[in-house]
Here is the input.
Amino acid sequence: RVSISLSQSSGINAEYGDIIYRDYVDISVAVATPKGLVVPVLRNVETMSYAEIEKGLNNLGKRARDGALAIEDMDGGTFTVSNGGVFGSMFGTPIINLPQSAILGMHSIQERPVARNGKVEIRPMMYVALTYDHRLIDGREAVTFLKRIKSGVEDPGVLLLDL
Here is the structure.
């Protein structure tokens, strides 16, 4: 869902400096390793199926933890996804990986009281944070991007069926 949303949000997939709007999606993914955080890049995500993305992410994670990444594997991402939720993070503000224009931080899923149809229910909730550069991205574009991500997280069938 991130790659589809990025394809539809040119500023979020852009590079600041000499402004470059890309027609491809290379997602940087934060990976914790025994020696610290590395951010390898999964390339041409817009051409991949959900299963291919999952396999690619697993491969990058394994190579990162094995110390088998080259510098080229961490260069050139157009957008970063960070998942502090795997460590129990509930909130946080991710820092943009320059020259990228945005980063998505995903946090842990926790049960929370929410209002639904006039009643309070306990539901699983996950907070996400999008840090973005206002020189390239306005609030409308950022919120639209987050709403697309939300729909994919809330209904994984959308992801599996590539809707």
Summary: Strands lie at 14-15, 20-21, 27-29, 31-33, 36-38, 41-42, 79-83, 102-116, 119-132. The helical segments are 2-7, 50-65, 139-154, 156-160. The longest strand covers residues 102-116.
